[in-house]
Automatic annotation (TrEMBL):
This is Response regulator transcription factor. Pfam families: Response_reg. Signal peptide: none annotated. It comes from Sphingomonas qilianensis. Keywords: DNA-binding, Phosphoprotein, Transcription, Transcription regulation, Two-component regulatory system.
């Protein structure tokens, strides 16, 4: 079971992702404001962060950049989950440090598969660093 924070200001999308990932065995908290989300992530240090791009307060891209510049969250897997389409948008997020970029609408299976892949990569990296 992974502790996941999903940063999403759309209540329906938040509930959907929370339900899908809870059924997959994870604990998911949803935060609808970028500034509050950044502060919570920095304090709680979840196993995975899922970010929307467009948020009140800090936008998702700014949260991503700050998390990658903070030693305590530098290696936290981050999945961008957004309605913002386009190769340039995905490239920007991946260059800024996102581990994956998923576009809404998505299938529950695809979301779970990408979350599991990000968590497996984190576990592998943590194991290599412990040696």
């Amino acid at each position: 079971m992974a502790r996941i924070i999903y940063v999403e200001d759309d209540d329906l999308a938040g509930l959907l992702v929370q339900e899908v990932l809870t059924e997959a065995g994870h604990l998911v908290g949803v935060i609808g404001h970028g500034t509050l989300a950044y502060e919570t992530i920095a304090f709680k240090k979840p196993d995975l962060v899922i970010l929307d791009r467009a948020l009140p307060g800090l936008p998702g891209m700014e949260i991503l950049k700050r998390l990658r510049q903070t030693p305590a969250t530098y290696l936290t897997p981050i999945l961008m989950l957004t309605a913002k389409r386009g190769e340039a948008m995905a490239d920007e997020a991946l260059r800024a440090g996102a581990d994956d970029y998923l576009i809404k609408p998505f299938t529950p299976e695809d979301l779970v598969q990408r979350v599991e892949a990000a968590l497996a990569t984190k576990q592998f990296t943590a194991g290599r660093r412990a040696r």
